[in-house]
Amino acid sequence: MSTPELVQARLATLREQINLHNYHYYVLDAPLISDAAYDALLRELRELEAHHPELITSDSPTQRVGSVPASHFAKVQHSVPMLSLGNALDPAELRAWRERTLRLLGDVPIAYVVEPKIDGLAVTLHYHAGQLVLGATRGNGEVGEDVTANLRTVRSIPLALHPQPDQPDQIEVRGEVYMRLPDFAALNARLAAAGERIAANPRNAAAGSLRQKDPSITATRPLRFFAYQIAAQAGSIQPASQLDALHYLQRLGLPINREVQRFTDFEELIAYTEMWMARRETLDYEVDGLVIKVDDLRQQYELGVVGRDPRWAIALKFPAREAITRLLAITVNVGRTGVVTPNAVLEPVLLGGVTVSSATLHNADYIRNTGILIGDYVVVKRAGDVIPQVVAPVLERRTGTEHVFTFPTTCPSCGTPLERDPDGVAWRCPNLSNCPAQLVRRVEHFVSRGAMDIVGMGERQAELFVELGLVQDVADLFSLTAAHLDGVEGFAQKRTENLLSALDVARTRPLERLLIGLGIRYVGSTAAELLVQRYAHLDTLMQARADELQELDGIGPVVAESIVAFFAREDNRALIEKLRAAGVRFDSDHVREVRGDQLGGLTFVITGTLPTLSREQATALIQAHGGKVTGTVTKKTSYLVAGESAGSKLTKAQSLGIPVLDEAGLQAMLGAHIGIDRETNELEKSP
Ligand code: IVH
Questions:
Q1: Is the pLDDT of residue 69 over 70?
Q2: Does residue 82 lie in a domain region?
Q3: What is the chain's mean pLDDT, rounded?
Q4: Per the confidence metrics, is the pTM higher than 0.90?
Q5: Ligand 1: distance of its center to the CA of 121 in Å?
Q6: Does the CB atom of residue 242 touch ligand 1 within 6 A?
Q7: What total number of domains does the chain contain?
Q8: What is the pLDDT of residue 385?
C-alpha cells in the first residue's frame, strides 16, 4: 500500500473502533476498553486528521460532541451544548494551553481555577421559579435523555432551590453525578449477594443507576451530585467568575466540591496539580484528573469554543488506574500461615506506567461474587502503591469459551483438605508443620531483610533447599555445611562460603529480628520491638501470659493470644530448642539505653527506605530518646519519618497535616548527630 492508502486504512480502522466503543460506553454503559485506551485511539485519530485535513469525513467521531443517545428515555435538546474537554497529559501540555489562552486574549492577566475532575457522568438540571423541572444526561452533547424522575431520587440534588434575594427565574445548572467509593463497594456487595451483575467502577455504577427504567431502583442507589457550572440563567445577576458562580450555586443549596483553588501564577498552579497525584489517593470518590478553567467568565466567553472543546478549560488527566486485559489462568498460592489465595495470570497490560501481568483475586468468595471466568476480559485496577486487583469481568466480550474456576478443596502443595478460616473468608491448609509450600514461604520470610537478613538466600534458594530436603524447618538452615551444598545448583565454593558466613552473622542477630523471622501471626517489626523492650530474652517471653502481654501499649488481645498460641505449640517449642542448639541468639541488645528525653511524649511512624538507618535502627534511635514508634498514622501521630518510596502512610500524614521528617530532620531533632555504629550496630553519638 502507498502511504496515503495506509493513512486511509488507519483512519477507517480508528473510526470504526471508536464508534464501536462509543456505542458500548454511551448506549450500553458497558465499556469494552479502558478510558485510557479509548483516549489513545481518539488522540491518534485527531492527530492523523490534523495532518491530513482533506481526509476528514463528516461522520468521523471527531466531528461530533459525543455519541448516540439510547432509546428508552425522552430526548432533550440542550439549550446550550454540553461540551467535552481537551486533554493535557503533563505540565508541558498545560503550559502550551496557557500560551494559547494568553495569545488569544492578548497578554492580559489571567486567573485560573483548578477543580477535581469527578469521575461520574455529566447532567444538566433546569430550575424554574426555584423548582427542579427537568434533569437530563449529556447524551451526545446536543441531545440528552430526560432522566428527571431518576435525578429526583438523588438526595444531594435539591428539588427546590434555597430562596435568595437575587433568585433566578430560570437557571440551568451542570454538574457531575457520581458514587463514593465506600458506597460503590457496598452496592457491589449487595448486587453480588443478590446474584446480580456488579459494576466495574463507580462511574459505570453511577451511569447504570441513573439510567434505570424504574426510578424506585435508582432511589436505592447511593448517587451523589456536585454542581460545577451555570449553563444559562435568566432574571438575576450574572456572576463574574467561575469562583463566584460556584459560591452562588452553593447559596442556592447546590453541593459544590470544596477542592477548588484559584491561581494567578501558572507555575504555582502546576506545582499544585503535581501535589494532587497524592491527594487523589486520599479522597473517597474517584477523580480522574483536574479541570483547569479560566476564572473570568468574560474571558471565557472571549475564548469561546473550538470544535467541541471550550478553549477556556482543559482537563489534566491523571495516569490511568484501570485497564482491560485477558485473564489467562488462575493459580493458587499457599502463604506462610497456610492461607490459600487465588492469583490472576494476565495478558501483560500497561497500567499507570508499569506492565501488569498478575493481580490478586483475593479469595474464593470474591471470584464467585464477581462472576469472573477463566478466559474473560477483565478490568484490572491498581491504585497508589496497592497491588493490582482484578475487579470485574467484561461480560460483553465473552465468547462462550470461558470457563468457571474451581477452587481447590485440597492443598495444591501437600494435598491436605483445606479448611475454612473461622474468622473470615480465607481457606487455609491446616498442615502447619509439614506442608512444603508453607515451609518455603516461612524460610523465605525468615531469611528476608526485615527478619534475619541472610544475604544470599531468597525465594529461589528457599524453594531449592526445601525441594532437596536440606531444610525441614528454619533451624535446619544453621546446620547447613559445605558438604550439604556440594553440587547444589548455583552453589560453587565462593557462594557456599558466603552463605555459611551470612548464617554465622544471622546467628547473632538480636531477638527482635528472630521474633519477626518466626512468623508469629500479627508480629511484625512494631510488635517485635514492643516485646523485646519488656522481654529481653526469648525464654521469658515464651512464659508470658496473654494478660501480661496485653499490658504492653500496642499489644491487643488478638496479638497476645496469637503469641501465646504460637509458643504453646509443641512443634514450635521443638523448633526453638533446635535454634538454641544451633547457637542462635535469644536475647536483645537493646537493653534499652536511655540517651535523652528530647522526644518524650512524641509518637513517630516510620515509612519508606531511609538513606542510612534501617527501620529497626531508626526505631531504636527514637526510643532511646524517649519517643514512641507505632505502625499506623493517626491524628495522634506527632511526626512521620519518611524515606524513599514512601507510600500511603505519607499520603495519609499529608492529608492529616502531620509534619513529615526525613532522616536528617529526625537527627536534627535530637540536637546532635547521632547515628548507628555500622560495625557494632549500636547507637553512637559523635562528639
Ligand atoms: S467543566 C466545558 N468541571 O468532565 C465542559 N467538567 O470531559 C464543562 N467533569 O462532561 C465541563 N468534573 O462530565 C467540568 N469540575 C468539573 C468536572 C467536569 C468532571 C466531567 C464532565 C464533563 C467531562 C469533560
A1: no
A2: yes
A3: 88
A4: no
A5: 9
A6: no
A7: 5
A8: 66
